[in-house]
Amino acid sequence: MPLKNTNIVSAAHTKFGKLDGVTQREMFAEAVDKATINAGIPKKDIQAAFIGSFIPEMLIHQGHSAPLLLDFAGLKGLPATRHEAACASGATALRAAIMAIESGMYDTVLVAGVEKMTSSTTPEVTEALAAAADDQFESSIGLTFPGVFAIAAVAHMNKYGTTEEDMALVSIKAHKNAATNPLAQFQKPIDMEKALRPPVIAWPLKIFDCSPISDGAAALVLTSNEKAKQYTDLPVKITGSGQASASMNLCDRTELTSFSASVDASRAAYKMAGVTADDMDFAVVHDCFTIAEIIASEDIGFFKPGEGAKAVRDGVTALDGDRPINPMGGLKAVGHPVGATGVKQAVVAYRELIGDAGPNQVPKHDNAVVHNFGGTGATCVVTVMRRADA
Amino acid sequence: MSEKPTVEEYLKNIQEGHFRAYRCVDCGLVIAPPSGSCYGCGSSKMEWTEISGKGELVSFTVIHIAPDEFVEEAPYFIAIVELEEGTRVSARLLGFDPLKPKEVKLGIPLKLDYEKGKSGKTYLAFKPV
């Protein structure tokens, strides 16, 4: 049965990037203000908060973030919990909020995500991110995050003939889309020569195959059908939500050219919404690495296994293509403040669906699928959305 | 080899150059790295098993940008290896030039080895037969 009662009525995120001098709590409060008072939603209407944040303990020596962040953002006293699922932290917070609305427990809730990363050194960030992989069996031999996706890339190249140039095209598309997105970390188009440039991070992935280290925050307000009318004439309905897990260890997976959690979560979300991948006008997927977008585009059913690279080559996933993917620039070029990403992806889908994406507007925008991926692919959350009047 | 296997012992065995896998007492499935329950039948009864040391290369990467602990070893290969017994492990790959990754072909036969890292740790490793 499709979800019946969950609406997004406002959505916003801060600038992503290296936000010097802006602390975690300040960017959180900025995103909350944009999604509440700036959108005409009084903070007093918010009844509970669901917060995605990956690893503030290691990055900024701060645990128990939820009450701290709420206090600073003028929401003191509300029930609030931080949700952690590595890079899928944001979407797991969203999913918990969906359940809270659908159950009837609350009418109006805040979903927010935040990560402050650039105040740590790159080795500190690398070590913190590695905590999302299996420390005893894989990180301990020197496997890194880019390494995990590089192994998937080698398998995909071997099985389907995907090339380094195909992956570079994903990066070129991301930078092109982000060039007109003022909230993006990078707003400069790149060409093939640059996209293939060293340094190699984990062969065959090079620097422009990887999403950056970023700061940023994002926020959404979800409401019931009855309350939604108070805030907007054009809410976005969340009609399906799927979540799945897979082995933490890459070596425990039988398939390396597809992520089973993505397949399982997207099928569950489509089934709940009563739709298929073909009904989706565009997708927002977790392109932490270029190969991740190619594989995700296959796993969510936009393209057959092995045909994701061809779709990029043919421009099918471009902003003006038949099946646009990451129309605002993706993690690759907009940035990847880990805990904020899953919420930011929903912000992008919301803005596209209501026709508020400016130069990044996709032509058809009735239905969208959002794919948020955690760690080595051990968690995936997929959300299906539809504009209320569509 | 009848004692109940533990993760600590599994890791220690590798450090001592004597890699062993888990085997499900109920259905015989060979499992490595360790799992608390069998992927085949769900049983949690495990025992140690010796393995042949033969395997096949499933996929790999070359790590150029490494965490602090491994910086002095980079670039180095990390491979997914399917053992003859059916289970897959992550391991270092030896016997190839990390600056010539295109010379490495998937599917090649490999045999068990170990690599002593500059950190002093011993890694599970494989090399071409």
What can be said about the biggest beta sheet of chain A?
9 strands, mixed
Unreliably modeled segments of chain A: none
CA-atom Rg of chain B in angstroms:
15 Å
Q: Give the CATH architecture of the largest domain in chain B.
A: Beta Barrel
| Second-tier CATH architecture of the largest domain in chain A | 3-Layer(aba) Sandwich
What is the name of the CATH class of the largest domain in chain B? Answer: Mainly Beta
Q: Would you identify the regions of chain B where 5 or more consecutive residues have pLDDT less than 50?
A: none
Q: Can you count the helices of chain B?
A: 1
How does the helix and strand content of chain A classify structurally? Answer: alpha/beta
Mean pLDDT of chain B: 96
**What is the C-level CATH assignment of the largest domain in chain A?**
Alpha Beta
- Domains of chain B, number: 2
Helix and strand sequence of chain A: EHEHHEHEHHHHEEEHEHEHHHHEE
Radius of gyration of chain A: 19 Å
User: CA-to-CA gap between the ends of chain A?
Assistant: 18 Å
Helix fraction of chain B, binned, reads: under 10%
Quickly count the helices of chain A: 14
